[in-house]
Description:
Elements lengths: L2 H28 L1 H22 L3 H6 L1 H22 L5 H8 L2 H12 L6 H19 L13 H25 L5 H22 L8 H29 L1 H4 L6 H13 L5 H17 L15
Amino acid sequence: MNRRDGAELLLLGALWGGSFLFMRAGAVDFGPAALVFVRVAGASALLLPLLAWRGEVGALRRHWRAIAVVGLINSALPFLLFTVAALVLASGLMAIFNATAPIWAALVARAWLGERLDRGRWLGMVIGLAGVAALSWDKAELKPGAYGVSAAWGIAACLAAAVSYGVAANVSRRRLVGVPPLAVAAGSQLVAALALLLPALWTWPAVNPGPAAWGGAAVLALACTGLAYVLYFRLIAHVGASNAIAVTFLIPGFALLWGWLALGEVPTPAMIGGGAVILLGTALATGAVRLPTRARAGAS
């Protein structure tokens, strides 16, 4: 990974970490369904012309069924769940729960695709889920907050979104191998926008959001989603998927930083400690960190 690739990886982590900030800022003004619709519609408006410019619209037509599934479970559903959670949870906390997505992806791969997992990856899953339990223990308040959502439901929504990402990763592995990544990105955002059109219209706020809210939604759509997808797939092409996935470990740090700077969300020691445990578990579960192996007996 050269300096440019490293810079793009940091920028991607900053953008995806910032998405939690903008979800938190816009969830009240727009409502979850309307904000997510603006997000995915704006991203598709950016990505579809790029897809046409690269001459890859045919790939979208040929694989539209699988891309539609990924659009629903990798964009529409998790974006909506995280935006509901944003009504009651801090942006950094949501990003920490989001970091469990690779753990769920590994579990789904084991159950559905029969992928074998070594002891290190199993240990990582146990550590990661223990971190989730510890982080959730004193925050899972059942009493609804000001917007009718309790902290417990917010945590459940974050974890459900992470599971959805894990399922989507395995659907992509099974049904979208060899499909141009930009076709998957653009098509999935378009499908998500179509799926959320009616819910967004039904729940559109009676008072139109102000310029600041629209500005935040535009950044969420164009930068944190559209541009972020372009950067992500550039990194996959240049340094490989196993290196590009390292962005998973940058997102919580950036989300905590943006939440502190913009919203005054001060990270607690419990959040930092629980996040570190979850990231350690994720690193082991994905194979990014491996347990040492014993030297073979009798080796010369």
